[in-house]
Amino acid sequence: MLVTLIITLIIALVIIAVIVSAIQQHKERLATLKRAEYSKLRAVLEDSEELLVNSANVPLSPAISQMLLKRIAFTLRAMVELEPGARDLKQRLQETESQLNNSNTDSSSNSAESVTLPDNDQQLIGMIKGIKRLRTVLRGEHARGNIDTQMVIQEDRRLEVLQLRINVESQIKRGNQARTNNMLGSARQYFEKALTALTNTPHQDDYTSTRKSEVMQALEDIATQLKEGNVRDREKKEEKENKDLDELFAPKRKW
Fold first, then answer.
1. Within a domain: residue 255?
2. Are 219 and 177 a contacting pair, CB within 8 Å?
3. Which residue in 117, 118, 182, 191 has the most C-beta neighbors within 10 A?
């Protein structure tokens, strides 16, 4: 009887140990999933806030600004659910919701015409990357049903036109600098890139037609300069060859 009781207790302890181990593993698995989800949400939050702060470099329309604020608020709510005791997250959520309530989607947006290109190439690259990231976020929020299709079409077109203008203006700027430094070959390449961008864009308007005419005129001027330069080089070469021939056949002096 005693042996049976001992065996029963041992079996019970083994079963309890297995159950406790399974529960512990389950808790650890949940904690791992929670940390992974929290890290994912934090990355989304940082990305959204960075895009919003970057509005000084990349003009944001009121609709885009509100979309980013909603994305931040949604992310903060999810983070608060995972970490209910995080007071800083709750404070940031309140501030974001307050901004959303005070935002006005009817205010005028910054236009592409007002964009000022930075002199630093790294800043220029940052602007282009910022626009591409905004377009990716815009399509992502539309896929989640957070914004309507009409807004996506309108805002994506605005960002695409903005990206085109930055590209064209930077190429023209580099082309003019190269012409000033008498680097006509490089200047021609920059203007050709600008012309290709202007020709291939589906958004044809007054800006594209005006810039296209200016770029084509610049390319004609460069072609003329290169042609004139080739003529001068050929004349100099012929003059040198004639001089060499004259020296070769000139009467030799007797000493």
1. no
2. no
3. 191
Q: What is the CA radius of gyration of the chain?
A: 34
Farthest-apart Cα atoms in the chain, separation = 141
Q: Name the token pair of 28.
A: 């650890």
CA distances from 112 to 67, 124, 158, 163, 196 (A): 19, 15, 8, 9, 20
User: Residue 152 CB: number of other CB atoms within 10 A?
Assistant: 18
| CATH number for the domain that contains residue 209 | 1.20.58
Burial class (CB in 10 A: 0-12, 13-18, 19+), 248: exposed
The answer as to whether 110 is a domain residue is no
List pLDDT tens digits, range 130-160.
Answer: 899 999 999 999 998 888 899 999 999 999 9
In the chain, the number of structural domains is 1
pLDDT tens per residue across span 151-187: 999 999 999 998 899 899 989 999 999 999 989 889 9
- Both tokens of 240, joined, read 């040198």
Domain annotation covers residue 79: no
CA distance 62 to 42: 24
Cα separation, 145 vs 117, whole angstroms: 34
Residue 110: CB partners within 8 Å, gap ≥ 6? 59, 60, 61
Instruction: Tell whether 199 is covered by a domain.
Output: yes
* 3-state SS, residue 111: coil
Taking alpha carbons only, the member of 191, 197, 210 closest to residue 162 is 197
Q: Which domain covers residue 214, as residue numbers?
A: 167-237
Nearest Cα to Cα of residue 157 among 126, 199, 112: 112
